[in-house]
Amino acid sequence: MKETEKKIPVEVLNASKSYRQGASEVLALDGVDLYVQPGTFVAVMGASGSGKSTLLHLLSGLTRPTSGRIQIEGQDLATLSDRELTHFRRQRIGLVFQSFNLVPSLTAADNILFPLYAAGIQPADDCGLMEIAARLGIEDRLSHRPDSLSGGEQQRVAIARSLITNPAIIFADEPTGSLDSETGQSICKLLRELCDQQNRTIMMVTHEPSVAAWADTVVVLRDGKIVGRFDSESFDDSQSLAAQYQSILETSGPIARSSAS
Ligand SMILES: Nc1ncnc2c1ncn2[C@@H]1O[C@H](COP(=O)(O)OP(=O)(O)OP(=O)(O)O)[C@@H](O)[C@H]1O
C-alpha cells in the first residue's frame, strides 16, 4: 500500500467560517467536525445557504477557516503559505464544478492537460491523457472545443481534468446540477467507479437524493452545522433516502442562521 493511501483523506476539526456581509457577519460554517476514510464516496446535502460550498472550499484550500483545523491527507492546510496551498491543491486534489469551468478556446485535450500546464509541466506521452479519456468515454472528442460538446461530455472532460494529476481526493460541487437526469446519473456512475475501482475519495455536494444515493455516506448540513450522517446503502431507493434526509432536517430544529453584527 502506498504511503498516501494510509492517510486520512479528510479531517475537519471544529472548523468555522464567517463572512462579512456589509455591517453583519454570516456564520457559513459553525464548528464542523468530519472524518472521511480513504476510498469513501460522501455526499453533502443541505438547503441553499446551509454551507455546503463553503465546506468544499475550505477542504480544497480555496478559502481558509476562521477557526478550527482542516487536514487533507494528514497535511494541516493552515501550515501552508498561499503559494504552497495552491501547489498542494493542484497536485493532490481534483476539483469538479457544476458549470464545468472549461476554457472555451482550448480543445478537450488541452483542457484536460491544463493543470499540468498551470504547474509548468510539459505533458509527457505517458501522462495518462489517453487512458483517462478512454476510461471516461471521451477519447474521440479530444480535438473538440467545449462549445461543440454536450453537457455530459463537458463534465466528463472536467472530471478527466481533475484526474490528470492523479489525486487521491476529488471534491465535486453539484457535478450534475447542469445536466439532465439521465446524463447526471451516468456522471454519478462514473464517480462511483472512480471510488470503487481506483480507491479515490470523493466528496460531492448535491441537492438531489437520486444523486446522493450513489454515495456511501450522506452528510446533512443545516445552518452551517452537520446535523446528521447516514449510510445511503441502508435505503432501497432515492425516495426513502429523501425521506431520511427530510426527517433529519425536520428533527434538527427551526432554521436560524447565526449572524452577528
Ligand atoms: N464569499 C462570501 N461572502 C459573503 N457571504 C458568503 C460568501 N460565500 C458564502 N456566503 C454565505 O455563507 C452562507 C453559506 O453559503 P454556501 O454557498 O456555502 O451555501 P450552500 O449550501 O452551498 O448554498 P447553495 O446550495 O445555494 O449553493 C450563505 O449565507 C452565503 O450567503
From TrEMBL:
Alphabetical list of InterPro entries matching this protein: AAA+_ATPase, ABC_transporter-like_ATP-bd, ABC_transporter-like_CS, ABC_transpr_LolD-like, MacB-like_ATP-bd, P-loop_NTPase
Its Gene Ontology cellular component terms are: membrane protein complex; plasma membrane
Pfam families assigned to the protein according to its UniProt record, in alphabetical order: ABC_tran
Where does the ABC transporter domain lie? 10-248
- What's a single GO MF annotation on this record? transmembrane transporter activity
Keyword list (alphabetical) reads: ATP-binding, Nucleotide-binding, Transport
Gene3D superfamilies found in the cross-reference section: P-loop containing nucleotide triphosphate hydrolases
Say which domain of life the source belongs to: Bacteria
The record's annotation in SUPFAM superfamilies points to: P-loop containing nucleoside triphosphate hydrolases
Family assignment? Belongs to the ABC transporter superfamily. Macrolide exporter (TC 3.A.1.122) family.
Q: What is this protein called?
A: Putative ABC transporter ATP-binding protein
- Which organism encodes this protein? Roseimaritima multifibrata
